[in-house]
Write a structure and sequence with these properties.
There is one protein chain. About 15% of the residues have low confidence. Helix 2 runs antiparallel to helix 3. This protein is mostly helical. Strands 1-2-3 form a 3-stranded antiparallel beta sheet. The protein has 2 domains: about 70 residues, DnaJ domain (Helix Hairpins); about 60 residues, no CATH class. The chain is built from 6 helices and 3 strands. Keywords: Chaperone. This is J domain-containing protein. It holds the Pfam family DnaJ.
């Protein structure tokens, strides 16, 4: 999954308030709207990107979660720590993380919502107290 900097897409600072985010969105949406640029595939793609950025940054809960991911990315965070907590890498380059969602600390809720929960690993088979895994990081 390609990481997108939604702040950069909207041209706003990370500390921007909701009013500034909404103003930037409206300005860019008008400029790149498909009705203003009929047949322009680049403008249409940019319009979709602008909408996606606004859907995240325009919602305080989504924005807070997105900011957590930004923080994690910027501080190298996480993947090495995740591996120390009990992840294994398979031959195809994906990681399987074992443990409970709570083992992921402050990001457990974010990952739970982002990925829709954790898949049950072979040890857990859906029973309480078993080890659960999520496979899919590459």
């Amino acid at each position: 999954m390609e990481f997108k900097d939604y702040y950069k897409i909207l041209g706003v600072d990370r500390k921007a308030d909701q009013k500034a985010i909404n103003q930037a969105f409206r300005k860019l949406a008008r400029q790149h709207h498909p009705d203003v640029n009929p047949g322009n595939k680049q403008a249409e793609a940019r319009f979709k990107e602008i909408n996606e950025a606004h859907q995240v940054l325009g919602d305080p809960d989504r924005r807070a979660k997105y900011d957590q991911v930004l923080e994690l990315r910027e501080h190298g965070g996480g993947w090495e720590d995740l591996l120390r907590r009990g992840a294994t890498q398979s031959d195809d380059g994906t990681y399987t993380v074992y443990g409970s969602p709570g083992d992921l600390g402050q990001f457990s809720e974010f990952f739970e919502q982002l990925f829709g929960g954790f898949a049950t690993g072979p040890q857990g088979a859906g029973t309480r107290g078993g080890r659960r895994g999520f496979s899919g990081f590459s």
